[in-house]
Amino acid sequence: MKEFKAGKYVNQGTYKSFQPEKIDREWIIENMELLNLLSQADRQLGRLDMYSEYIPDIDLFISMHVLKEASQSSKIEGTKTNIEDALFDKEDITEERRDDWDEVQNYILALKTAIARLEKLPFSSRLIKETHKILLKGVRGKHKLPGEFRRSQNWIGGASINDATFIPPTDISINEYMRDLEKFAHNDEYYFPDLLKIALIHYHFETIHPFLDGNGRVGRLMITLYLVEKGILKNPILYLSDFFEKNRTLYYDNLSRVREKNDLTQWFKFFLVGIIETAKGSIKTFDNILKLQKEIDHKLQKLGSRFNNAQTIVNYLYKSPILDAQKAKELTSLSFPSVYKLIDKMEGLGIIEEVTGAKRGKIYLFREYIELFK
Predict the structure, then answer these.
(1) What b/e string do you get for 232-245 counting C-beta neighbours within 10 Å, with b at 16 or more?
(2) Residue 297 placed within a domain
(3) φ, ψ dihedrals at 169, nearest 5°
(4) Is residue 290 domain-resident?
(5) Domain limits for position 312
(6) What's the total number of domains in the chain?
């Protein structure tokens, strides 16, 4: 990778666009520090993947990871919604936060749909376009060609193209670049470790910036899709947006460093550290969830004849940790008076917490569980 050249700036008349080198070719790694990080990352992902097999009802926990990923990935783009906000129904969110709420819900739907589509459709431009279409449906950016590659020049930073911090390649070259990216993703002729492959794909996608809006979110979402499609993870349980958000300046600086200094190695190192730290954090979260389950089970034993109905509610809360009396009634088939008594008991045990402060229309959160994902 010593001979790596990221690309070159090409004069387009009134501005210069960055035209990256294609990536579907043979790559040779010589940096031992990078190989060491790669070994650590592979080891931590293996631990996480094995761990997930022993977690009962893994789908319950995946839904919360997806919720966190949606919130954090959108936050990088300036969206203000947090995990708690995303759990509420739209009508329970203040008017000024609803656009942000919509974007997070779209991200959740886009990711879940894309994961399901992988069973029939490979990691490809088609899948990326479908995902982008869901992401931008009915939200800010809905008029910026959802599901279609751009047909005009875009730029990053600056009030106009004249003072932009970065100008991606021309729109007429996008299809060619995306075909190259797709070939590289599925090229078995030249071996290249999958974790470095998706790191390079992510960098290259962000450099191409093929959409008018939503490139960052789609690019981060692609990481999970790739890991699942390649069988590196059996379940979609690793998401890097939290790491990127916590290290936002480094994230952008390292992407820019590739283009400005041809330093791909530093980007790879940053990406692999993200894999290692995120996998460790996910394992810790799973550990804490198992501990919490034992604590909650112990508390439920104190409810006597109400145990079974309370257990039904708790099982629901692991998937969607927000509750009102109507949902509790649907889950248990109890009368409203009985539901209110059960909810009071569960609140008294500290299992759920009322968050509205209202006399009617009370909403309860499974607070301890939500905190584990923060």
Answers:
(1) bbebbbbbbbbbbb
(2) no
(3) -60, 160
(4) no
(5) 303-372
(6) 2
R_g (Cα) of the chain, nearest Å:
23
> Rounded CA gap, 374 and 371, in Å?
5
Start-to-end C-alpha separation, the chain? 37
209: Cα within 13 Å, side-chain hemisphere: 18
Q: Which residue has the higher pLDDT, 3 or 113?
A: 113
Query: Do 89 and 162 share a structural domain?
Result: yes
Compute the distance between CA of residue 112 and CA of residue 133 in angstroms, rounded to an integer: 14
On the CB side of 70, CA atoms within 13 Å amount to 27
Residue pointed to by tokens 């761990």: 51
Say whether both 313 and 242 belong to one domain: no
In a domain, 76, yes or no: yes
Q: Which amino acid is at 267?
A: W
29 phi, psi to nearest 5 deg: -105, 130
Q: pLDDT of 18-50, one tens digit each?
A: 999 999 999 999 899 999 999 999 999 999 988
Q: Count other C-beta atoms under 10 Å from residue 15's C-beta.
A: 15
Same domain, 346 and 203: no
Q: Does residue 373 have a pLDDT over 90? A: no
> What are the start-end ranges of the H helices in 186-246?
194-208, 215-229, 241-246
- Among candidate residues 225, 258, 285, the one where a domain is terminated: 285
Hunting for tokens 């589509």 — which residue is that?
117
